[in-house]
Design brief:
The chain is mainly beta and 236 residues long. It folds into two domains: 2-132, Jelly Rolls, CATH 2.60.120; 144-235, Jelly Rolls (Sandwich), CATH 2.60.120. 6% of the residues lie in helices and 41% in strands. It has one helix and 18 strands. It has one helix spanning 2-16; strands at 28-29, 36-42, 45-52, 61-63, 67-73, 77-81, 102-105, 113-119, 125-132, 151-155, 159-166, 175-176, 181-184, 191-195, 200-203, 209-212, 217-221, 228-235. The longest helix has 15 residues, at 2-16. The two termini are 19 Å apart.
């Protein structure tokens, strides 16, 4: 009940942001922030393609539900909270991003955050974020191995995430996902997401992704000449 009430209050804050201000600044939901581009919505999740150029700053935006990021291009960033100050020069970054790495922030369910972000590095900062549209924690009731191939890297009450690394011409077994899932290519390469009796999607550039819908039977196949990883993210 506490989490539901807090989440409702957070969204109400967003709804009022257009007519009022927080700390003299307008705050919008994260999926409406232009640099956090909404590229998919459905099945209880949103996918955001976050891109902040060197020297650029996002608008103030609100995180109110858990999110799992896959880093495509790391760069040094700093944040400013609403009604707060930018950190002093030389302050260590809060998060250390690694190309191809994943990070999950689930505290937003009980402690929503409104902030803006500046890229103070010298290259594009890019993430693919998978956001749950409902912040209520729900345990997974099926074995991860029965639905997701690869090495398990993260499990929580909101997400399961694995990394599938395939050598040339290799493929995973056919599996069926009980919940909508996102497959993300973090590096250069070429991978296929094959769906039984349906379309095959090719992922061929860093940040490319596809959504595997609940109930679909699928496998991952590497048709290229290079060993390539794919990140799989399954929200509750």
């Amino acid at each position: 009940m506490f989490r539901s009430t807090l989440l409702a209050a957070a969204y109400a804050m967003c709804a009022l942001a257009g007519a009022s201000t927080l700390g003299a600044q307008r705050v919008i939901p994260v999926h409406e922030e232009p640099r956090h581009k909404l590229v998919y919505e459905g099945g209880g999740l949103r996918v955001l393609d976050v891109q902040i150029a060197p020297g650029d700053t996002s608008l103030y935006h609100l995180h109110a539900t858990p999110i799992l990021y896959t880093n495509i291009s790391p760069s040094r960033t700093i944040e400013q909270l609403v009604s707060g100050d930018w950190p002093p020069p030389g302050t260590p970054p809060i998060l250390r991003w690694v190309a191809g790495g994943t990070l999950s922030d689930t505290i937003y369910t009980v402690r929503p955050k409104a902030h803006r972000v500046t890229n103070i590095g010298d290259r594009l900062f890019r993430l693919i974020g998978v956001v749950t549209m409902d912040g209520t924690p729900r345990p997974f009731t099926t074995a991860i191995e029965s639905e997701m191939p690869g090495v398990r890297e993260m499990t929580s009450s909101w997400f399961r995430q694995t990394r599938v690394t395939l050598t040339p011409a290799d493929s995973t077994a056919w599996l069926r996902t009980s919940r909508t899932m996102v497959a993300i290519l973090p590096f250069d390469g070429h991978m296929l997401i094959e769906r039984e009796g349906s379309e095959t999607t090719g992922l061929s550039m860093p940040g490319a992704f596809t959504v595997i819908k609940a109930g679909e039977r699928y496998r991952v196949r590497n048709p290229s000449r290079a060993t390539t990883p794919v990140v799989l993210v399954q929200p509750h």
